[in-house]
Design brief:
A 6-stranded mixed β-sheet has the order 8-9-10-11-13-12, with helices on both faces. Helices cover about 40% and strands about 15% of the residues. Helix 3 links the parallel strand 2 and strand 3. The chain is built from 13 helices and 13 strands.
Length: about 350
């Protein structure tokens, strides 16, 4: 029982936690989500409402914790110590769950179990980021750092000169081998692009030795744990999907090639996917929210005169799909465009994200 006794000594009462928009509310909960998005801190917040002797916290990524010791003695240990909260972090469901009043599981592989609520935690949206960021005194500074280094909670308190290196480490740490790394890398390199998995596979197989099955299986893993998103074209399931990543700044961390518009669009997509379940794309329209009859267009540096032709195409498509409102998201522009049928707003990202 050495592992269980050591885990029982862990105390989270002094962990400093900043509120997230999502919380653990059920007695039986499975938490999943991409790497380093804050799953553990959500658990620490939940445990802070209990006395240390009321919970048992076991992290299976801790090399000191022996699975055989845990699975053999867990049920007995819970009864013996009258534990009312069991936490299994980084759990792969290697053994049957014991009886306990509260069971909280974090896992990279989402699993549905009867009686358990499933929570998916994403990285910080911009509003949450501002709550965590106490280094910068104004919203413009915070936005610039958010845009450059992304939305992962731990990056906020790291010295700026170390952030790119830490982003690279985070990418590597979530890949089990070189093949997974190359797959994740090629997906990141193609954010905000319309690329089929077959196209990407053909590109990658010229670089490394890889089977089609391995490539598709790995992409499915990244999709299931919300590391990668594949955005569908509205009403066209067989059309090529657009690719997005859970942290828009990963692209900047793996390549010197600048794709600022792609990163900016990915950042906007992440704000949308946190709020809506019906996000699609259309021709000439980056994001279409069906339930709101709304189009979202990322154009970092909007110039009405230079973009006149593109704007005409956007408006034409908006009429076709009976869209009521177009929001063009920029770095700093703020204006309105008059149209007889449409509400057209040009809005800075930070104003739009907080509205």
């Amino acid at each position: 029982m050495r592992t269980l006794e050591a885990c029982y000594e862990i105390n989270f009462s002094k962990v400093n936690f900043i509120e997230r928009k999502i919380r653990i509310e059920g007695t039986k909960t499975i938490i999943s989500g991409a790497f380093k998005t804050g799953k553990s801190y959500l658990i620490y917040d939940f445990l802070s409402t209990f006395k240390p002797k009321e919970y048992l916290y076991i992290d299976f990524s801790d090399l000191r914790n022996e699975i055989s010791d845990v699975s053999k003695n867990l049920e007995k240990f819970i009864k013996m110590n009258e534990i009312i909260v069991l936490v299994l972090e980084n759990f792969d469901f290697q053994f049957e769950l014991p009886n306990c009043e509260n069971i909280i599981i974090s896992t990279s592989n989402p699993k549905k179990i009867r009686g358990f609520e499933n929570i998916i935690i994403n990285a910080l949206d911009f509003e949450e980021y501002l709550l965590h960021d106490n280094r910068h005194q104004n919203i413009t500074q915070s936005f610039n750092i958010f845009l450059k280094y992304g939305n992962l909670p731990e990056l906020i308190n790291i010295d700026e000169h170390k952030r790119i290196h830490r982003l690279q480490e985070i990418i590597e740490l979530q890949c089990k081998d070189e093949t997974q790394y190359e797959i994740f890398k090629i997906l990141i390199e193609n954010i905000d692009e319309k690329k089929s998995l077959f196209q990407l596979f053909n590109t990658l197989k010229n670089k490394i030795k890889i089977s089609k099955d391995k490539f598709y299986e790995t992409c499915k893993i990244y999709e299931n744990n919300k590391s990668i998103y594949f955005l569908q074209k509205y009403n066209q399931e067989k059309s090529v999907k657009k690719i997005y990543c859970y942290n828009h700044s990963f692209l900047n961390a793996i390549s010197h090639v600048k794709k600022f518009k792609n990163e900016f669009a990915n950042m906007i997509f992440l704000e949308l996917v946190n709020k809506y379940s019906d996000v699609y794309y259309l021709d000439n329209i980056d994001f279409y929210i069906k339930s709101k009859n709304m189009a979202i267009i990322p154009i970092p540096f909007f110039n009405r005169f230079l973009m006149n032709n593109a704007l005409k195409k956007i408006i034409k498509n908006a009429y076709e799909f009976e869209i009521n409102e177009i929001n063009i998201i920029t770095i700093s522009n703020n204006e309105k465009i008059s149209d007889p049928k449409l509400k057209i707003n040009i809005i800075p990202f930070y104003e739009w994200a907080l509205s």
